[in-house]
Amino acid sequence: MWVAASGEQLLTPTAVALGKFDGVHLGHQRVIQPILHSAVSENGRGNGDKLPKYSPDHPSQLSTVPSSPNHTYSTVVTFDPHPQEFFTGQPRALLTPLDEKVEQLRSLGVEQLVLLPFDRELSALSPEDFVKKILVQQLQCQKISVGEDFCFGKKRMGNAKDLQIIAAQYNIPVTIVPIETDTENFPNNTDNIPNDFTEDGRISTSSIRQSLEVGDMTTATRLLGRPYSLTGQVVAGQKLGRTIGFPTANLQLPKDKFLPRLGVYAVRVFIHSETSDTTPVEKLGVKLGVMNIGNRPTVNGTYSTVEVHLFDWSSDLYDQTLVVELVKFLRPEQKFADLEALKTQIQLDCTIAKEFLNRTY
Ligand SMILES: Cc1cc2nc3c(=O)[nH]c(=O)nc-3n(C[C@H](O)[C@H](O)[C@H](O)COP(=O)(O)O)c2cc1C
Ligand SMILES: Nc1ncnc2c1ncn2[C@@H]1O[C@H](COP(=O)(O)OP(=O)(O)O)[C@@H](O)[C@H]1O
Question: 113 has which bridge partners?
Fold first, then answer.
């Protein structure tokens, strides 16, 4: 997938889905769907998969992207930094930091991601100028898709209907996608009673964050359309794990990654190089394990770590990138009297996790 900031060389003309898309959850996927090419390639996915994979080290290798004169590029246009971060000055933790967002969009078949630098200039554009300068002039947009609650332009003064009216002046059709709701918790509920995490049953980034904060992986998985995952490189720890018979791969996560409830989880793990060019069903390299997110009070830990112990695995994992899917929250972290007591508890965690993971998958 081609990733560029506005002002850099872009693939045009485009069919554009507009939004923040943090999480690339089920609602976001509905908004992106109308701009994808209906032509499905042999392997059952959109033709975005034929395009080169984004490499954070080489984000601008345009020469590797095939060009075609009659092609309309399916393009997600988003803001970077997150507008809330720009206005509050506070860094915002994200469900999908950039690399993960790229990976999710690529797997949906999106061909290009355009990052609009959310700065004073962009935030001051009127809705009319946003359409004219960004969508028409820069992106040569031919089709647009947005969610029903989309707002844009200075002080968020334009809404989805305004976008439709302004874009019509350029003959650009706008699909307004209704808000996706989650009523699955209430299969017999004809009144659309919302569940605990979804305001009015709405699938939203904040409802997913709330479910992750309390360790409700079932709801998070349902709203995302996939399990919540942590992607990171394996770095060295204190080398204590192996002494108690539970070596743990310590993950270094992007600084802006949103962390779920601290504690112990049953997880499924993929070594990234194995998964990067395969569809979910082809994830043959899946491994099962347990993960702890926390401060390790038993060993007087002073900073928080994310550590994964894989079942039936004994090789070196240092420097590898792991994708860890959080399947079930097992328990909060505890301070044990000694390492022996911690070891006994981890043994129990493993038994419970294995039982659950083998039952579920
Ligand atoms: C499944 C699992 C559960 C854990 N639970 C706790 C816990 O409840 N309390 C705690 O202090 N540390 C806990 N830990 C963290 C251990 O203290 C840590 O793995 C050990 O100190 C080894 O650290 P190292 O990888 O830096 O060598 C847990 C680790 C795992 C893998
Ligand atoms: N089953 C396993 N699960 C996780 N890591 C393993 C496993 N077997 C071997 N390893 C390797 O051992 C390392 C963890 O050992 P550990 O003693 O906990 O050291 P560290 O404190 O550096 O994490 C991992 O980073 C990985 O390279």
Answer: 3, 76
Under 8 Å CB-to-CB from 355, ≥6 apart: which residues? none
**Which positions ≥6 away from 46 have C-beta within 8 Å?**
36, 37, 39, 40, 74, 108, 109, 110
Alpha-carbon span 288 to 292, nearest angstrom:
14
Determine whether the shortest distance from the Cβ of 314 to ligand 2 is under 6 A.
Answer: yes
The angle, 0 to 180 degrees and rounded to 10, between the axes of the packed helices 205-213 and 217-224 is: 160
What is the per-residue DSSP string for 59-91? TT-GGGS---TTPPEEEEEEEES-HHHHHH-S-
Question: Any alpha helices (H) in the chain, and if so which ranges?
Answer: 26-32, 83-88, 98-108, 120-123, 127-129, 160-168, 205-213, 217-224, 272-275, 339-360
Q: Which residues line ligand 1 (CB under 6 A)?
A: 237-241, 246, 248, 250, 264, 290, 292, 296-299, 307, 309, 333-335, 342, 346, 349
Q: What is the ipTM of this complex?
A: 0.95
Q: Which residue has the higher pLDDT, 82 or 252?
A: 252
pTM (two decimals) = 0.86
In the chain, DSSP finds a helix count (H) and a strand count (E) of 10, 14
